[in-house]
Amino acid sequence: MGSAGLTEPRDALAELFRFQGAACRDLGSSLWGAMCDRMADDVDHEGPTLDLLAAHVDSKIGDAYPLRVLGGAHRLALVGDAPELARHLPSTGGDGDADATWAALRALIDEPPPALTDALTRPPQTNEVGRSASLIGGFLVIAAETGLPVRVLEIGTSAGLNLRFDHFRYEQGDAGFGRVDSRVQFLGYWPSGIPPFDAPLTVASRRGCDVDPVDVSAPDGRTTLLSYVWPDQSERFERTAAAIAIAATVPAPIDRASAPGWLATQLAEPTAGHATVVFHSIMWQYLSGDLRHAVRDVLEHAGSAATERAPLAWLRLEPRRDLSYPELRLTIWPGGDERLLANCSFHLGPVEWVL
Hints:
This protein has helices at residues 7-26, 30-44, 48-52, 65-78, 83-86, 98-110, 114-119, 132-146, 219-227, 234-247, 259-266, 289-304, and strands at residues 150-155, 169-172, 175-178, 185-187, 203-210, 254-256, 275-281, 312-319, 326-333, 337-343, 352-353.
């Protein structure tokens, strides 16, 4: 591909890959970090990575095109359609050699199969279960302050794994919440202060929506989720697999729908005797400005009708403006005051409880 008219966007695209590479390394994936750096260099040299993303040179970091490419390639390896790449990914029993991984990945990018180009059309379906370690504090605060069972509604739910948050175990020292025998355990992630683990949290109902939901009861859905788990992070693979097993035993309907219209239906009337909790995690960036405004409008309208016996809470785990780390924020109606509860991690890491 020639560089005429593309120099500045090309440079921005390469920088986007380098930013994602640094983030991958910070979050514990040296292999995916190295692949992002190699793709950045390939863009600089007008290689096949630039050809693959020619229509997306003006994309923003929030669009996550590096992760779309890597997720699509990882999926091919997981299902056996990219055997050379699979030989080098730890998730498929490979050696983790970065040079060999790049050679195999670049060959896929050079002649991209339909599954790889298809992966570019949708945002990553990470459904990171580790985010429940951050979200749990918000649910506990809501339960403690309202004294009511919660009705949970998740937008951008993907496969709905985090809708089963109360079936995981959370502990710090002698304090804890959740099933002691859960296969998903979060131990010791609150070193600087802990949420109210003794709150009377009971989930009365759970439901989610997504424009492209993942059905983890089907093999294809399970592969989709695992493709977005970084291949050199075995603990994340094990945790995701355990959460998928829990999901099979805990019903949580997921509707194929856009967030504003779905929320308008779910929040049409206050639900007396329950605290309704709308929550989401690391998905706000994928919504257009219009959709964000529409979600806010629906929440504020429903909030205006909330009562002490039918409160509405908006719990969100989303990045700061500088994308340095996510914050856990909570708004409860009646009242509508917003609070910062914790500074967190994009996947699983220490939670700085600040409430």
